[in-house]
Amino acid sequence: MSEPLAYPALHASHAGIWISTADGVVKPVGRGEAIARAAETPMILLNAPLIGERLGYPEISGLDLLELFAFIHPAKFMVPTPKGLATAIGLEPPDDDQGAAQMLHRAASELLSHLERPDWFEREGAWASAASLSRLRWPWGQVLETRIAKPAQAERWLFSKLPEWQETSARPAPHPIILNTGDVVARLDSLTGHGAEERPGQRDYALAAIDAFSPRQRRDAPNVVLAEAGTGIGKTLGYLSPASVWAEQAGGAVWISTFTKALQRQLDAESMRLYPDPAQRRAKVVVRKGRENYLCLLNLEDALQGGFAGRAAILAQLVARWAAYTKDGDMVGGDLPGWLPTLFRRNGATALTDRRGECVYAGCPHYRKCFIERASRASAQADLVIANHALVMVNAARGREAGNAPTRIVFDEGHHIAEAADSMFAAALTGQEAIELRRWIIGPEGRSRGRRRGLAARLADVSSYDEEGGNAISAAAHAATALPADGWLQRIAEGAPFGPVEAMLAAVRGQVYARADAEDAGYGLETEAAGLDGPTIAAVEPALVALDALLRPLVILGRRLEAVLEDAPDWLDGQARARIDGAISSLGWRRDALSAWLSMLSRLGGPADPDFVDWLAVDRIEGREVDIGLHRHWLDPTRPFAQAVLKPAHGALITSATLRSGEEWAAAEARTGTRHLDAPVHHFASASPFDYAKQSAVLIVTDIKRGDIPQLAGAYARLISAAGGGTLGLFTAIRRLRAVHARIADRLARDGLPLYAQHVDPIDTGTLVDIFRDDPRASLLGTDALRDGVDVPGDSLRQVIMEGVPWPKPTVLHAARKAANGGSAYDDRIIRARLAQAFGRLIRRADDQGVFVILSSAMPSRLLTAFPPGTPIQRVTLDEAIVRVKDLTSARPRLSSSAQMGHHSIP
Hints:
Layout: E1 9-13, E2 16-20, E3 26-29, H1 31-40, E4 44-45, H2 48-55, E5 63-64, H3 65-72, H4 82-89, H5 97-113, H6 126-135, H7 141-145, H8 158-161, H9 181-192, H10 200-209, E6 223-229, H11 235-250, E7 254-258, H12 261-274, H13 278-284, E8 285-287, H14 297-307, H15 311-323, H16 339-343, H17 371-381, E9 384-388, H18 389-398, E10 408-411, H19 417-424, E11 427-430, H20 431-442, H21 455-458, H22 460-465, H23 467-480, H24 488-493, H25 500-515, E12 525-528, H26 534-566, H27 574-602, E13 612-621, E14 624-634, H28 638-646, E15 651-656, H29 665-672, E16 681-686, H30 692-695, E17 696-701, H31 709-723, E18 727-730, H32 734-750, E19 755-757, H33 765-774, E20 779-782, E21 799-802, H34 812-820, H35 824-840, E22 850-854, E23 873-876, H36 878-890, H37 897-900
Parallel strand pairs: 4-5, 6-15, 6-16, 7-9, 7-10, 8-9, 10-15, 17-22, 17-23, 18-20, 18-21, 19-20, 21-22
Antiparallel strand pairs: 1-2, 2-3, 11-14, 12-13, 13-14
């Protein structure tokens, strides 16, 4: 271990603030003294943004151990807490906050000692990276330069050492086979382990799933299985068994689609049971996500060569270190630590991905090493492709990978299909969407920087070769000047819009504010696109003309690009062909967007389309306007989903623990789109094997006054204390979450019960869940994102608290769907589904125990069918609830934190 650094270490939590000297002397200090000392001398910290939040001094900086860890061990998982860091580097975790302050010195020495070890795996590139970081005045830069030996030979540049993907021949169509039940059962036995406890429900589930892999008998008539598998059945291995057998015997790929990234990570881990050999697993299993999730090498190169400045440039260097060792280049939910971008206040992280759809495909010098292209090609040869609902729908709707279209799909978290389809098949003509289209067509304007290039620059060779295509590019660039430009929001607010589209958006804004309530809390505003006044209708016509003038040259350009491919000139090599293919795809979905905008505008002032819901909106964040526009959603978004995704498939398994939410199968068919299919749908259901009567209880607290924040906060604090932590608190409003957290965090911390919260702590959601899972005494407050996909088995989660009944937000879209789907019964279905999903977080293993608390006397009895049959349900006072929580949570065996980390949910 290296000698300890001479700098002091600073640790802060809700319980207090401590400063430790290099010789191990620890002193509690006040906020004022801590801020003053941090301002005058470098401090060793762990997660500077979080420490700054605790001190009320967000600009604090110093020698952040998380940044050092990311440099020394890129692509390695670590929970960003004192205990998590100690565990990751082999130190004894601290017992308390004072010990955490002392541990920071030992951690720094242990990390720095890796620099001198001959077996340091991530040594390559470190010396050059440290030199670059030192020039950028990174606090750790000079420390590293003195400890990393200069290599005898020049180190390879990142872009020269990344492996290239290889082209492969097209995969033949899968063989039409019928699975043998014996093969599927044998595969399930091998996955669960020979001699493991027999689970009839899991076996029946695997056999029922076989129908989804049978040969299709008619076009547009896929074999569809709806399977509801209660928590604990083991549906993951239940469908992996027939899926993997079919992939091997038929020679095709099965796409497994999820709604949450958490389930994607779980599936990726479970695939190790199928393919223990890492090399075989890389070939057989591929995780796919949208383009915006992956590191863009061209953006990274731009950042490294001066495109970024300040802290963003330091982040780019650390991301480059990670890029050399990453498994797949996934920056969102992959092996890039989720906490790394938050250390830089997200400054620069989003600019390192392709979030604007401006990829130049084969025109990129790093095309052959592109992480996105590698994943796309790997999935064409894989047996199992783990994707998400959005990507599956995008590929199906836009035909980006027509030759790689999946014939068999497993939709896990199937209760979210309608939600994903609602987002995918919607249209939004807003200022932000329009300005992005302008930038994509025109390219950089004024003083804008970066590598953004317009159509003319991206397709210069085409325009020089094909006169009609060149004219179309010029016409599109001219027409795009009618779209909103930089500063559009301010001009509209000042009553000086420029151009026909900005004028229309100004009219939309006027209508929204005219119809809005006089008193509002600064949230977004909306109104139905009906009964609009004369000036608004008059402003629509010039916008229609302008958008139509833009669509026409884009249509012509698309045809000319296709003609170039058909009548290939001499210069059209493989890379140029791939680049034009990419341009055709990008043009296609932008033309679709423009067509949707024109359709939406053309109906304003006329009769409404019964298939759609249209409205006007002003999006605001805490009173500040961020966007203005018109929105269109399908009244039933599962209709386009069934048409674009299900009908072309040969078979689909749609599964979830809450597919029916206590209703008949007709309800499940409605929310999954299968009612729009002509072919019959197979049903399967298996109840959870857990004994909910013994393992759980639902407590409805009746004496909490609605809207009383002090009383609500007091209830949360007392319930969390009664359970000794291990609590997931769910809120329907961010404002109430923040208010409750502010009132109780310090109080709980003084009792040794850490409290974390979404929208408060400067930590991403995935990392917050990791921290919560790692500490049985910690609690976590959050919103909808924590109601689904959070898998925290064992002692770390023993209580779930909901602040009230999760009523749907009364939006224009919700009101239309409610009216079309049975009125209040539609609301009840939504609430029951939300309650069932939230309750599902609680019991994940056979030995789990826990309590579900609802802080609302207004909980209707008709909604209680959301909970599993046999679950004890009581209406109690808060005092009675405290007693019940203590009884239920103290009766279960407590695991040590180290033992807890080794437990997993039933797959």
